[in-house]
Amino acid sequence: MNIQFEHNKDLTNLTTFKIGASAKLYAEYKNVEELRAISFSEEFLDNEVFYLGGGSNVLFNGDFNGLVLKSRINGIKKYQKNKETVFAIAGASENWSDFVKWTIDEGLAGLENLSGIPGTVGASPVQNIGAYGVEVGSLIHKVECFDIITKETVTFSAEECKFGYRDSLFKNEGKGRYIVLRVSYKLKNSIIAQNLEYGPLKSLQEKLGRIPSISDVAEEVLKTRDSKLPKPDEIGNAGSFFKNPIVRIYFYKEVMSALYPEIPYYKTEDPLYIKISAGWLIENAGLKGFCIGGAEVYPKQCLVIANKGNATAQDVIEVAEHVKRKVLEKFGITLQPEVNIVDTDIKVTILGSGTSKGIPEVGCFCPVCRSDSQKDKRTRCSALVETKGVKLLIDVSPDFRQQALATEITYLDAALITHSHYDHVGGFDDLRPFCIGTKFPVYLRKDVNEDLHRRLDYCFKDTLYPGVPSFEVHEIDEAPFIIKGVKIIPITVLHGKLPIVGYRIGDFAYVTDAKTIPETEMEKLQNLDVLILNGLRFKDHFAHFTVEEALKTINELKPNRAYLTHFCHEIGKHEDFQSSLPPNVFACYDGLIIHTH
Ligand code: EPU
């Protein structure tokens, strides 16, 4: 089968943001056989792959250094199950709005509230699109996918799709594995509107003087959308840039509604949580019309960031960061992007580069501990990794509070823990700002989890003291896992005799506190652009690589660049130490920023 791969494909008009970007490689497939053939190709196997639907929920932050795949699987048909129920089945690349219009013309009820949403049928289950009181997950019967791993087709029931608010299996553990081919929706053989619960639809029956039909609802929804949301062919945008935040009911009752009784909210399926309007928060943080470069908080619906014509992806990201910061400052709520920010770049900030005692050591007057140079002041080891719009903290050092203040961390998606020694977890209580109204996700080994439950027993009691941090604990083993689309490969190394974890993300890896790296794990560290590795000092240590051992490992792994970290004061002054290292090896210092991919 002859698959055409285009090189340097311009993606500007394939996304509704209409912001310039290109893909190193691009291909389309019309059926599952073509997709299967692509999945065996070198272009597929050697590159990061991104599946593009209608491009209505995506922002390419710069050129995509990989393969972009686009479905051209078309076709719509219906199948009458019985008098009441009809299944409407559509190919992934069908235009969503046109498909909804077709269901209305066919006299099939259910999807009318979802009229006018930009994008494709294939994106509807991924994103669990929703509007005006209806989420598509409640109408999905089956989703047929191609499984990239088994190379077979697989069909998921609605339950197996694990639909949540703008969430599904396909955005989490299934991301990059299951590619939607076709979706079947369970609709009613009726022209009567099914759901009039949401805002402007509530008064429709009274306004019309009769029971509204599905076309009436579609018309009203399109009118409302037109009045609030910019049309992507006129003003580039990706709909809501953020999700409506879901907060604990007590936070809503005690804090938000007490201070702001008018704040719009929606019930969720879980009575302990409530969803509040992000658009309202943004508007009431004074950000209506806020601009950076060509990107603007859209004045008629502040949840949208619009491209006024000449916005760069960086403008949009800066506006989004500003919005997040201001909303957090004013309301103590962290907004999460709904838009899929795609980039292959990784930014790593070294938050701390010192060993367990830090530098200066308490009570030490050696020249290193007394050095005036900022680079000789080393807090306990930790790093911040930012990629694809996701912020991950590696280890929560006892100095985390100072590190977060110094680098202005206002938001984190999760923490990855290497092991439970105090210098790597001592700052857990200072994660409180990231637990407001939500549980903060932490990824760690079973033994670390058990240790954490002992140390922080007050965070895991049945009755909690108000304000203690709350964690969503994910136990990890050797298997790769995904956080919001970022694939993370655990690397098990030995810290003395203790098995601990390093992490690989793309062509970047962070390994600290290693004394031995088993062969299997060395395999996982091949072909790196950047490796961060511990090198405590020159003298032997029972549990840590010396500088010599670290350099030997670097020599075997041959990353493009390596950075040493986790130093004690015996390493000497930073500048002297740096000048003793080979050309592609660098000494970390607190605040160092490394860009990789
Ligand atoms: N509001 C403001 N200021 C704003 C925007 C909204 O005060 O700038 C208030 C409104 O007055 C209203 C409430 O917030 O009381 C809700 O506003 P709206 O009905 O526009 O809905 P939304 O919650 O802001 C969600 C979806 C939209 C969907 C609408 C209608 C998300 C992230 N967004 O927005 O979906 O069209 O409901 O159902 O859930 C999208 O996902 O891209 C999208 C546009």
How would you describe this protein?
By secondary structure, the protein is α/β, with parallel strands linked by helices. It is 21% helix and 29% strand. The protein is globular, with a radius of gyration of 26 Å. The site of uridine-diphosphate-2(N-acetylglucosaminyl) butyric acid has 19 residues, from strand 14 and helix 8.
Beta-strand residue percentage: 25-35%
In terms of per-residue confidence, which ranges show pLDDT below 50 for 5 or more consecutive residues? none
Number of DSSP strand runs: 35
Average pLDDT over all residues = 95
Described by the principal axes of the CA atoms, the overall outline is globular
Count the helices. How many? 15
Name every ligand kind in the structure.
Answer: uridine-diphosphate-2(N-acetylglucosaminyl) butyric acid
Distance between the termini: 32 Å
**Rounded to an integer, what's the Rg over CA atoms?**
26 Å
Helical residue percent? 10-25%
What structural class do you assign from the helix and strand content? Answer: alpha/beta
Strand order of the largest sheet: 27-26-25-24-23-22-35
The biggest sheet amounts to: 7 strands, mixed
What is this structure's SSE topology?
Elements: E1 6-10, E2 22-29, H1 32-39, H2 42-45, E3 49-52, E4 58-60, E5 64-71, E6 76-80, E7 85-91, H3 96-105, E8 108-109, H4 123-127, E9 130-131, E10 134-135, E11 140-147, E12 153-157, E13 178-189, H5 204-208, H6 214-228, E14 236-240, E15 246-248, H7 249-259, E16 265-267, E17 273-276, H8 278-284, E18 291-292, E19 295-297, E20 304-307, H9 313-331, E21 340-342, E22 346-352, E23 382-387, E24 390-394, H10 400-406, E25 414-416, H11 422-425, E26 440-444, H12 446-455, E27 471-475, E28 481-483, E29 486-495, E30 498-505, E31 508-511, H13 519-524, E32 530-534, H14 547-557, E33 561-565, H15 574-579, E34 585-587, E35 593-596
Parallel strand pairs: 2-5, 3-5, 4-21, 24-25, 25-26, 26-27, 31-32, 32-33, 33-34
Antiparallel strand pairs: 1-2, 6-7, 7-13, 8-13, 9-10, 11-12, 11-13, 14-20, 15-17, 16-17, 18-19, 19-20, 22-23, 22-35, 23-24, 28-29, 29-30, 30-31
Bound molecules: uridine-diphosphate-2(N-acetylglucosaminyl) butyric acid.
